[in-house]
Amino acid sequence: MDKIQSDCPYPGCFFCVMKEANPSKRRASVLKFFRELPSQDDDGQVLPISGLWNTAMAHPNDPEFINLGIFECMAALIWKGLKNRRWLAHDQNIYIPYYAAHIIGSYTMNMEEFAERAVRAGVIPPLVELLRGRLTWVEQRVAVRALGHLATYPSTFPAVADHGEVLELAIQLASSSLEIVYSHFYQFVDRRLGYHCDLLTRGMGGVEMESRKAEEWASQLQCWSLQLINCFAFKPEFLHDICKPDFLVKLPGMWGGLVNENSPAGVGLLRTICQSKVGRGHVANIPGTIDALCNIARSSDDWQYMAVDCLIWLVQDASTCQKVIDKVAPTLIDLADISTLGDYKKLGDTIVTVLQECMQQSGNSRGAISAQTKAEIDELLRSKQSLKLEKSMPKEDLHIKQAAALVVKLEGNSLFSSGNIAGAAEKYSEALALCPMKSKKERVVLYSNRAQCYLLLQQPLAAISDATRALCLHSPVNRHAKSLWRRAQAYDMLGFAKESLLDAILFINECSQSNDPDLSLKQNKVPDYAERLVKKQMRAAWLFREAALKHGGVHCEGDASDAFGQEADDSEWETASESDAENDATGEADDETEWKNDGHQEDFCEKS
Question: Which Pfam families is this protein grouped with (predicted)?
Fold first, then answer.
């Protein structure tokens, strides 16, 4: 290739080519550059490749380089790196396969036409070799990303699926990615490959930044593997390979961590699986997966609605309903007062209808639904019938019920303050029975107060149920601060670190926006008790925790995650949790009564 500028030390310099003012000459020069680059062994090849990487990230829908052969060039460069290790080790060529796979992924993430061109250019075989782990986990990450984009489109999915090992490799990678990154990079600071560190931090950062980015990339490696599997899960013929019990039981725990909150991860794949009758049959046979879906459905997880979808579909399917109903019904009943969640409108009404149909279908089937589950569903149906009756009830009668509920609630508050927690719980139950169904704000307080009682009575499951009902009734949904905190403590008692962490973080967010003097952050400082719980759960839910325990828990000095992997004495945390619960108990019970009365609001008691 001729020089474009005489003062450039590199013949055929890509950057000089791009400065060519004549569009026709520039295109011809770029075309020649892409054709010749894979066969050249000059130094400095990584520079134009990194420039192309920046261009692909900034302008992924621009067809210019697609039409000039960039996919053929990138595929050839990956093959060169795989086959010629001497070239790969020379200069900075070690970076080139990573950038080449990343460029392919960027140009195929939005445009099906570009994906079709990539497939015709032969990018899939070298990407599959990277996926196998022929180089390192860093290249696996960008390979699974690119293959995931290619598998997204109907026209290019068959080309990916033709490589039968892709699905199995993706399943293996989703299951082992965190351990791979921990043991191959995170664990030993002095053994980290230099080019890995440079790619992670772009040369701007030390050990601590490398470790944080490694956690983020490990999460992406897992989530992008799940995204690739998800493309296969829409096809019934692949479900048998996906729905292996040991994989399904792990899926709910693949949540991406706090560093990758934009991916639905494991629960997203479960939702796709549950859209199919075949998939539902597999999921229904894994009790651990059903339990985990119930936990996600009763949490403040951004993907809560996906777990709810799974549970509803499992109950609606006559072939799976009997297997799961006793586990699923209590969760759906707790969510029956929710209004809107995700794309759901009137979700509570949908849940009631589904459970009612389930009862009708069971009919005279002996042993189909347990007596306890039937009683709980019947109670839900009666409460919804009561709500309908209240619409025609005279206002005076409603006021009498409101006043009676208030009196009983105040009795409960008094018992609570005197330390009679069991007696207070009974009074709050009585008040709930009296309180009109339409008085949502008061029912939020009653459920939340009773949840606190159950906490102190060491009944965390009951506390989670009541706190969830309070959060569903609250407007906006999942934003009642005290119920979030109480549920966070209950999850902590059961050892559900992720669920406790999400509730505790959301509690702090609500406190920062609250006008309640008991909740608002003083001097913008997070309460000590909340900070302690968050730190505890961040350690317990740390993305690398299992890998660290398996590999001896060696950590890089100064990394915040260092504490998460260590087996520190938990007695401090248990004491803190007990102390927090005790402090909550010795204070007054919530008294946030707001009744609607003839168009104006009356405060029947002091607000806390």
Answer: ARM_7
- 235: three-class secondary structure by DSSP: coil
Task: Return the pLDDT at 3.
Answer: 43
Q: Are 222 and 314 in a shared domain? A: no
pLDDT at 367: 57
What's the number of domains the chain is made of?
3
- In this structure, the answer to whether residues 401 and 312 fall within a common structural domain is no
> Of 330, 349, 384, which one is at a domain's C-terminal end?
384
> What is the structure's pLDDT at 8?
62
Closest CA to 179 of 552, 563, 501: 552
Cross-strand bridge partners of residue 341: 344
| Position 563 pLDDT exceeds 60 | no
Where is the domain boundary, 502, 524, 550? Answer: 550
CATH number at residue 434: 1.25.40.10
What tokens appear for 137 in the block?
Answer: 């986990």
Note the pLDDT tens digit of each residue in 122-135: 999 999 999 999 99
Token representation of residue 121? 């250019």
> What's the pLDDT at 4?
42
Distance CA(204)–CA(426), nearest Å, equals 60
> Do residues 168 and 174 touch, judged by C-beta distance below 8 A?
no
Examine residue 416 and state whether it is found in any structural domain, yes or no. yes
- Three-class DSSP category at 208: helix
> Of 493, 495, 473, 498, which Cα lies nearest the Cα of 483?
473
Strand partners, 344: 341
% of the chain at pLDDT higher than 90: 73
Same domain for 149 and 252?
A: no
Residue 53, C-beta contacts closer than 8 angstroms, at least 6 positions apart:
99, 102, 103, 106
Cβ proximity of 484 and 510 under 8 Å: yes
| CA within 13 Å, CB half, 280 | 21
Asked whether residue 317 falls in the same domain as residue 402, the answer is: no
> Is 275 part of any domain?
yes
206 and 245, same domain (yes or no): no
Indicate the average pLDDT of the chain.
87
CATH code of 282's domain: 1.25.10.10
Residue 336 contacts residue 315 (beta carbons within 8 Å): no
Q: Is 608 helix (H, G, I), strand (E, B) or coil?
A: coil
Average pLDDT over residues 395-401: 92
Looking at the structure, tell me whether residues 403 and 330 fall in a common domain. Answer: no
The model carries a pTM of 0.88
Report the amino acid identity of residue 209.
M
Range of the structural domain that residue 46 is part of: 8-234
Q: Residue 556 falls within a domain, yes or no? A: no
Cα separation values, 357 from 307, 309, 346, 360, Å: 20, 16, 17, 5
575: how many CB neighbours lie within 10 A of its CB?
11
Residue 342 CA: distances (Å) to CA of 48, 230, 315, 479, 484: 44, 20, 20, 15, 19
Render 238-259 in DSSP notation, one character per residue. GHHHH--HHHHTTGGG----GG
Q: Are residues 489 and 409 in the same domain?
A: yes
